[in-house]
Amino acid sequence: MSKSPNANSGPLPAPAIDWRVGRGVSLLHDPKGFLRTYAGQLGITAAFIVVWLLFVVLAPDTFLAARIYAAFAQSIPLFGIIAMPLTLVIVAGEIDLSFGSTMALSMVGFVLVWEHTNENVWLALLMALVIGAAAGVFNGIVIVYARVPALVATIGTLYLFRGLSMVIMGGRNVHLGAIGNSLVYRISVGKHSFLRNIPAQFFWLLGIAIIMWFLLNRHRFGAAVYVIGDNAETAALQGIKTNRVRLTLFVLVGLAAAFAGVISSLNIRSFFPSVGEEQLLPALAAVFVGGTSVFGGRGTIWGTFLGAFLVGTIRAGIVAVGLTGFATDFIYGSVIVVSVTIHALLQRRFG
Amino acid sequence: MPNQRTAESLKTVPRLEVRGVSKRFAEMQALSNVDFRLGRNEIVGVIGDNGAGKSTLIKLVCGYHRPDEGEILFDGEPVKKLTVEGARRLGVEAVYQERALADLQTLWRNIFIGRELHNRFGFLRVGEMRRETARLMGESMGFTSTAVSPESFVKTFSGGEKQGIAIVRALYFDAEIVILDEPAVGLSVKETDKLLEFVRSIKAAGKSAILIDHNIFHVYEVADRVVVLDRGKVAGRFRPKDRTVGELTEIMREIAETGKTSVADDSSWDTAETADGGS
């Protein structure tokens, strides 16, 4: 940033710019532009509403009662929290498949510190986050500096981190019983009457989604993420430190994975070395169902947020509607295929 | 940047000078003993076939490569170990057809790539960037249609318009030397005209440009001077305005056949007075 823009460029006196320009596309004044700009987000919003209404009509007893939403608030953040920074990774044209294993490796650190510090939960949490960040740095170094494609590198670290967790723990499960009284527990997964007994992790999901939205849409970092995913050469030529940005993205996912690992384990007050295994596909599905392009350059946090709820709702919904368990994967898969196809078509039409 | 020079003395010094530069890559002598000057407020066309050394020359100026021999001077000051960032700081901005803009992003985001207006925490001043973009569209890009706005996606613009956007962006951020690398490739006649209009705006803004092309007729209309490279050497220099299209064709044929030309506008090509005046 060695230069400031020349505010006086051009010989003409500046004509008055409509103040509305600064507010972006307006639905009232430019409906076509609005549709073009927000096609993907409107699409996922419509899909979400349709699926939800379908469930309400087919299983009103379940979907008009609060209990199922409490269950969603408990389970969706486990992968939703990771899906948020994962959206940024994919917008930048990268991918991360290792976060499920990062959840486990971070929890290994958590458990070992917890056991060896006379159950100091804060230190354990810190250790989990440090390991999550380190796993991200490791991914980043292999991908950004050794230039191994992210898909390949993170398939490798998926096994590496999981295997390391297994080796260190020797397959041992750990019961975290007393942790239920700790402040960390209450802050991360507790239910509080002043929050209407909605599990705390739901608010973490909301908070992380809001932070990631600002980072992606209203911060220089996010501006760089979009350009890198769109045209990495342009980004480099315009002076963006592409390597640093890409490395940071993997660190963000690592941190989110560590936190998701802690939430998953505190939720059941136990550590299993298999923690995180089932979160890989829902998190990826949430990002892609939400309209983020695997080719990079476009994607939204709003899309991923609704994508996470769509993905998280379907499984429970299918059972509630009364379909047999054999049908779940079929319907689940259909919804994903249909929604990503719609996104592809919308992008060709409006993109 | 040079410093104690007075404005007066700066006038007589070329904006950019490449002096006796040679560059060899493993198997090929890309440039041998090339002299090149770019005056203030001047547009110089560099033409030559593929492999003539055009790209090597601009990559040296942009700091991508270092010369094996010779030196590069900005405002008369030799710059040793020119880096990409150093060249940018000195006001060199290259505009590449395919690499200038991010297609899937909006116009305002493209104008401010890597140079976003932001507060001290790095948060974007989005409204200001949108309004600045709207202002540039009206004042400098000639986009008056209501169909385009700062929110328009760059992929919806034509090839000539996109390069125009990149040129306007370079000037907006005070580029002193805009380098255009084969800007007319693949453009229709109409689009090329649009592009040339933008190239003229560089001069109107008081800045300089190097226009690289393999076709004399693209640069003919806008270049003050033309330098012809052939197999790594300067094969000829002339002022296109003094010559007819027929003469230009003749010069180019002569160079293609013999590697040099008998035409010599050299007496005036690089003296400070004429460089200063442009044409």
CATH class of the domain at 91-208 in chain B: Alpha Beta
Kindly report the CATH topology of the domain at 91-208 in chain B: Rossmann fold
Outline the low-pLDDT stretches of chain A. 1-14
Please tell me what the overall shape of chain B is.
Answer: globular
CATH homologous superfamily designation of the domain at 91-208 in chain B: P-loop containing nucleotide triphosphate hydrolases
Q: For the terminal residues of chain B, how far apart are their CA atoms?
A: 27 Å
Biggest sheet overview of chain A = 2 strands, antiparallel
Number of strands of chain A: 2
Topology as H/E string of chain B?
HEEEHEEHEHHHEHEHEEHHH
Continuous helix count of chain B: 11
Shape of chain A: globular
Radius of gyration of chain B: 19 Å
H-E string of chain A: HHHHHHEHHHHHEHHH
Secondary structure: number of strands of chain B: 10
Q: Tell me about the largest β-sheet of chain B.
A: 6 strands, mixed
Task: Please tally the helical runs of chain A, counting DSSP H or I stretches of 4 or more residues.
Answer: 14
**How much is the radius of gyration of chain A in Å?**
22 Å
* SS-based class of chain A: mainly alpha
What would a concise description of this structure say?
In chain A, 70% of the residues lie in helices and 1% in strands. Chain A has 14 helices and 2 strands; from the N terminus they run ααααααβαααααβααα.
